[in-house]
Every structure is written in C-alpha cells, then in structure tokens.
Write a structure and sequence with these properties.
This protein is α+β, with helices and mostly antiparallel strands and 386 residues long. 35% of the residues lie in helices and 16% in strands. The protein folds into three domains: 78 residues, no CATH class; 173 residues, no CATH class; 98 residues, no CATH class.
Length: 386
Amino acid sequence: MGTSPRRIDRNLAKALWLHAQRLDTDAPFGAGPAATPAAVRHLGYVQIDTIHVIERCHHHILYTRIPDYCREHLDRAQTAERSVFEYWTHALAYLPVEDFKYYVRDMRRGPLAHGSWFASVTTGDLRRVLARIRRGGELTIRDIDDDVLIEKDHPWASRKPSKRAMQLAFFRGLLTVSRRTGMLKSYELTTRHFGWERLPRTATQKETLGYVVERALRSQGLISLDSICYGGARAPVASRAAVRQLIEAKLRRGELVAVDFEGAGACQHWARPDTLERQVEISPQRVHILSPFDPLVCQRKRLHRFFDYEHRFEAYLPAERRVLGYFACPVLAGDRVVAALDLKTDRVQRRLQVRQWTWMIKRPSRPLRAAIDAALHSFERFQLAG
C-alpha cells in the first residue's frame, strides 16, 4: 500500500496485541457490575457458546479480564441495564447496545445471510409468534405447548416450528434475547425491551467501515485485513475491498502506518503511530487460562503468526485424532503460550479436572508451574461459584 513498513520487534507486536486485549494488567475494567459492559464495549464482542465442559465461553472470557466477575453481572447488563445485546458477528455474541445501528442493515437483510435455514418459516408463523409476545410478554420456547410437532431436519433444529420463527424474528431485529437462564433464551419485542419507538437508524456505509476499523484498532492494536473483517464486517457494506480503501486513505493522511514484524510473512499490518510509541511491559508471572473462543485465540491464523502457537479445537474430532484433548485451553504466561490444558469441571465432585497437560515449551521452570497451579485453583473457584 505505497509506503515501506516500519519494522518492529515481534515481542513488541505481541505486547501491543496483549495490551489491546487488556491481558497485561490485573483489573483493566475495574471491579463490580460496571466492569462487564465496559469489557464488552472495549472488546467489541464477546462470543457465546453452548459447550459446558467448563464454564461457558462468554463467562470465561469476561472472568479472564475481570478478576471479581460474577455471572450475575452479565445477566444484569443484558436484562436490567440493557447495555448489551445479542446478535451474530462471526458467531453469536454479546455486543454493546450503542453498536446496534451497525447491525440494522443485516437485520433488514433478514434470512439472506443464513441460507435455506428459514425457508420453512411462513409469514403466518412469524406473525403468530410476534402477536403472542406482543400480548403476553417475553417468551421462551418451553412456554409454547400448542405447536404441532414436526420431524427434525437438522440435529440443531427443534420439533416446534415456533422456535425457527422466533429465530427468524431475532435475526430480523424484531425480537431480542431479553434474558438467559443457562442457555434457555427469553425473547421480547426489541423495541419494548430497550424502550425504543423504533429500531435505531441504519448506519451508513461510511460509518460502518469506520466502526469495524476502529473496533479492530481498539481491541487488537496491530490490525490486518483478516483481523478487521473477522468479526462482523459483512459484504457489501464492509467488504474487504471497501476496508482496504479506507486503510489506504488513513495511510495517506498519516493516521496509520504500515508495520512488519518477524512471522508476519506476506500479511500486511497497520497501527496508529502513537500505538508504536507505547511502552508496554508484559510480566512473565501473569498467567491466563484462556477460553478456546477468547478473542486472542479464535483468530487461529493470527494467533499462530504472533505467538507461533497453533491451537486445535478438537471437541468434534474422534478421540483417536485428538492431540491436545477434547476441550484444550491455551495457557498464556507473559507473552508466551506455554501449555494447553484439556479441562473438565466435575460439578458432582466439585473440582476442576486436568485431563491432559501439553507443554509448548521445553523445561518449564518451577515458578512457572507454581503460577499455573495458582491460576488453576483460582479458575476452579470461579467454575464452582454460585
């Protein structure tokens, strides 16, 4: 893109990403309930997942950055304060409510982004579900007991046709998830839940492009086309070509500089000039047990490029093909991924099991082992709390 990139040390590249992810300090978002929406706002999105081998990933991600995090804090943000909402980025995720306008265009597109999944939902199905919620208030799929059951056409489908109708209304922005009980979702009219007369206006193409780039800069420090477009930058509004044009304009204006580092290869990276002047120190004693869906981990190619660690998520592989284990969690110590732990919470015996421990480094020191053990004990207490 025109200018020669500025060469930086790989350790600085890692440090800048870790700082952007707020993994370099003890309590970057403070404490108490207010820390949760602050974390979601900074990260841009927090992925939701149903897997419950250990704590579900949305709670795990927040706990990693908020030492006194409680599950009730996320419930409060979603249900009472209404400062976060659920929608689809690269996966289902919690998002800050002030970002709602950037997703309205996707909502207007409705089922187009989801293939044939909603083809069986009729206009009548949709109207009936909406009318029922309008009259009676928020509703879960368990509350519907008068559906004529059908055969499943997919393992994740339901025999109740109303479930897919509610999902379609959700993707169209007509319904929102007003609360969760475990993974059971309560749906409410979006406008009524947030106290709006109508949905927020649709963000313009220029606004959306600026949003996805700024979100990446805030949460990643060093950015690339892949990293910008990974979570929720959808064509045609925020296509790779449109993002590239905006990056070029920012380079010409001096708002960004091109950056290169060992391991980047042919992948171009950019940063704000002042980002490269930061003095970021990553303590090797700081240990995080990361969710496999953590923002630092889920972009697997980027993780490998920065940390020379290739994470494998093997829950859906046969046992004989697993290398790291069914639900391996990377262990970040300072600026290195030093191990992968296959964890499982035994909720009957009330303990955290390490089913497999795979070192990624040679000759781990005794202090490192002790720091990881301490992190495991802390994580176990969080797992079994409540």
